[in-house]
Amino acid sequence: MTRYNCFKASLIAFVCLFIADVSAKPTSTQVLRLYQTDFQFEYHIELLKIALDKTAADYPDTKLQFTEQVTPGRGLKMLEQGEVDIAFLASSKEREQNFIPIKIPLLKGLLGYRLLLIHQDNLEKFQQVTNTKDLGDSFVAGFGSHWADIEVLRHNNLPTQEVGTVTSLYRMLHAKRFDYFPRGVNEIWEEKQRLKGQLPDLMIEPNIALVYNLPVYVFVNKDLPELAARIEKGLNIATDDLSFQELFLKYYNDSILKARLSERNIIHLQNDDYPMTSTIDTSWWL
């Protein structure tokens, strides 16, 4: 074979390999359906986009499609029935059986640090609380009936009024239908700011924090294991290059500082689904 023919054969082989490599990535756009559209999921959605971007070379292009806003209970049904593909959820053993959990905590344990939204008329009463028994003997919490950690309050003997929607919980607290509403450090400051015009008597109790282990994961419909593998790969890449941690601090650093957790009376609660077998690594965000 002449030198020219050798070169030609090598060139053809290279082109074939290039074409095969390019064609290995699917060309159709994958539509990913989500139901969580309100402001408190902005961080989760941005983190999901980062994970998808980190894996874009090896997987289909994606487009996020949002349904109408629904209750948490309806959203879980939609995920189970394949009407949506992804949800960001506090974990429980039941949820891990029903869906594919990607076991990389999105909030680094922060949702398990709970401050109390209360009516300002009750501030003095809460100054007497030093432990779980004080809280359980004299106060009633309001909490979402479909939330994974409702069992945490029950297990720790904290009387709880269960309500279907977060909007109703705010209004009922303002009307003194119960005494406190535990909210994550990542949620409470923005919620208080948003509510001050219409529910001006609500305030953040200044001295108490409830703490329990509550991982928040991306959950994927059981029929989509490849999507789950992609998101897990993307989150691991984002962890390694620190873009995950950077996004977390961008959203929550100010809230963590305002919470003054080191100055609060910390009341530890036990979560049977996720016992506190080791200390949450807060060294880089507290």
Walk me through this protein's architecture.
The chain is an alpha/beta fold and 286 residues long. It has two domains: 7-107 and 216-252, Periplasmic binding protein-like II (D-Maltodextrin-Binding Protein, domain 2, 3-Layer(aba) Sandwich); 110-214 and 255-268, 3-Layer(aba) Sandwich (D-Maltodextrin-Binding Protein, domain 2). It is 42% helix and 19% strand. The chain is built from eleven helices and twelve strands. The protein has helices at 3-24, 42-54, 72-81, 93-98, 123-126, 132-138, 150-155, 166-174, 185-195, 225-240, 243-259, and strands at residues 30-34, 62-66, 86-90, 100-102, 113-119, 141-144, 160-163, 180-184, 202-204, 208-211, 216-220, 265-268. Strands 5, 8, 9, 10 and 12 form a five-stranded mixed beta sheet that branches. A three-stranded antiparallel beta sheet has the order 3-11-4, sandwiched between helices. Helix 2 crosses helix 10 (225-240), helix 2 (42-54) packs antiparallel against helix 11 (243-259) and helix 9 (185-195) crosses helix 11 (243-259). The chain is globular and about 60 Å long. 32% of the residues are buried. Residues 6-23 have low confidence and may be disordered.
Q: Biggest β-sheet: count, sense, barrel? A: 5 strands, mixed
CATH class of the largest domain: Alpha Beta
Chain-averaged pLDDT: 89
Number of β-strand runs: 12
**Count the helices. How many?**
11
Mind telling me which CATH architecture of the largest domain this is? 3-Layer(aba) Sandwich
Could you say how many structural domains there are in total?
2
Stretches where pLDDT falls below 50 for ≥5 residues?
6-23
CATH topology label of the largest domain: D-Maltodextrin-Binding Protein, domain 2
> Can you identify the CATH superfamily of the largest domain?
Periplasmic binding protein-like II
Element order, helices and strands? HEHEHEHEEHHEHEHEHEEEHHE
